[in-house]
Fold this sequence. Notes:
Blueprint: H1 3-17, H2 20-29, H3 36-46, E1 51-58, E2 64-71, H4 87-91, E3 104-105, H5 115-124, E4 128-133, E5 140-148, H6 154-172, H7 178-196, H8 210-220, H9 225-232, H10 236-250, H11 255-263
Antiparallel strand pairs: 1-2, 1-5, 3-4, 4-5
Amino acid sequence: MGTNALFDTRTIQAAEAGMIAPIARWCECLHGCAPFRDALRALAAAINGEAAAVCRVSTGKGRASGSVFFDAAAGERNGPALDRSFARAVLGGYLDKAKPGLIWYKSMSDQNSDPALDRFHASRRLAELAVIPLSSGRRHTDFLELHFSSRPGAVQQALLNIISDTLVRTWTNRSPGLYTEACLSERRLRRNAEVEAHLLSMENPAQLSRAEYRVCVLLSKGQPAKRVQSDLGISKSTLRTHLRNIYAKTRTSNLTELVYHLVSVDTFAGQSPRRGTAA
């Protein structure tokens, strides 16, 4: 055996030993002893993945009917968090035919490019998506999806091949009802996040500058543009610049649409302030 082959074998063996704890965490979550998100976090960290998801995709329409996500960059200002399944973008017509445990890579797929996946990867500077079918059925198929910031190397690919059968076997033997409950919990968390992501919340989801934030506060109180300009002591052109930037950040196209979004969610009375302010 050559030196390089010996080195690769030892490297893979060492990496495989490092998978024991993540796989144990995965098994715990499938029997109700740990949250699904924790298991995804452990798996992603062990193979240098940036985001992971378990998604149940309806085979007829190709839409996710339930998903649980982990994203290492969630909450950071470097692009949108993972919030949907991209299994169909990789498997295409094989969505309901893929063998459980077989690993599909975006870079090796012969399917037409999915603009949504391309935009997500471009905005996050991600390079690869690996999809592992966990089950296959007539109505839906379950997938583990792993996103990487760089193409998985030989060791990472070997690890995925080694653990894929274990992931499928333990998924098949999971406690009934746990995944459905995890999906319901995920939906509740996302609904709460949508409420907390009000444009004028302390989280400042649109990343408004201090000046832009002040403009939005006055507009949310029913002030007309001229009064906003006067109260802030700024020129008409400066206000116009602020509004142009605000429209871009809030994905609105005019003042009426912006004001609607500013007042469409009630202020959260009684809630304690959370960390984060307008930039």
